[in-house]
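Q: Got one fold?
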Amino acid sequence: MRTERNLTRLDRVFARLDREPERPAHIDMPKMSRHRVVLFSATLAFYLAIVWAVVTTSWLVRLDWQVMFFRPYQQWPGIHAFLDYYVVLGQRGPTAVMVLAWLGWRSWRQHTLRPLLTLGASLLLLNITVGAAKIGMGRLGPHYATVIGSNEMGLGGDIFPSGHTANAVVTWGILAYLASTPRARRWLSAVSAVTSLGVGLTTVYLGTHWLSDVLLGWAAGLLILLALPWFEPLIAKAEVAIFDLRDRWRDRRTPPVPAVPVPVMLKPRTTPAEETPAAREPAPPVRTARTPVHLAPGPHTTRSERTPVTPVGSRRPPHADRVPRTGAPAARPMTGG
């Protein structure tokens, strides 16, 4: 008895890869729902609270100095080599290349530029917002601190908020944002949260950022992801414009195909004088063949009652003295002989 083999998850993945590139019939684009607006507002309030706590040199600044004096890289030196490589997951260049390769392949498979355009929009927003905050507040890092207990603001630094943390949140979170199914979105959201959390804590371990820098970096990256639905109409217009530009460029490069004339056989036109009498006379109507009608036979008569008929053209005179036979034949007279 032959049984069918159950397909594993890997088999289904390869079966999906073998399909021809096709654009999905429906692309689920996140919308700015009420729940997302509430999350955006709460995250923005958290962002402003962190900035205010650092500017006013509150308890958060004191916590920054305590963690710095604790020197985690000296407390756990065994993981230093691993975290030196792990922090690369928050660097803008390597992470952008990895995510760009994946989203580029996905764009080719789905015949859409939305994944690439969404990544570009998120990175542009990241550079503008985080870069402006870094330059505007000018905070120095732990390795360059000058006065113990101070917030080190306005001294020409560029570490507040943490760029590694914000970049990890945006770069890996964009995969969850572009997920095609709710289940994939949940799993990728969890993975991106853990990855960005690890990158932020790694910068604190290495002593390159204050703890408040990491908190503000998480909030900055999350604000960008939550605000992306507002830019979806602009991304859709950009995609249409790029495709139109591509089509016009192809039309210019492709030479026009000359039209081949199709010969048409025209019937010569005749004047009424040239028409023959046969052509002028209407054709007689076609009569359909009628089924021969067989008359029913009359009353049956016996052979003796029939009138004798002499064939036409016969030379024999009719026999008027012929007597019809009504009964048994008369006995022929016997003659001697």
The radius of gyration is 51 Å. Residues 6 and 315 are 107 Å apart (CA to CA).
